[in-house]
Amino acid sequence: MSEKAFAIKTVHFQPSWTLRSCTVELAVTQIGGHMAPVQFYRNTAAPIQPYYINPWGGKWRQISDPVVRPLRGDFFCMPFGDNMDEYRGEQHVCHGESATARWRLASAQRCGRVVSLTLKVRTKVRPGTITKTLSLIDGHNVVYCRHLLEGYRGAMPLGHHATLAVPETPGAMRLSSSSYRFGSYVFEHITSIMWSK
Question: In a 10 Å sphere around its CB, with 0-12 CB exposed, 13-18 middle and 19+ buried, how is residue 165 labelled?
Answer without folding.
Answer: middle
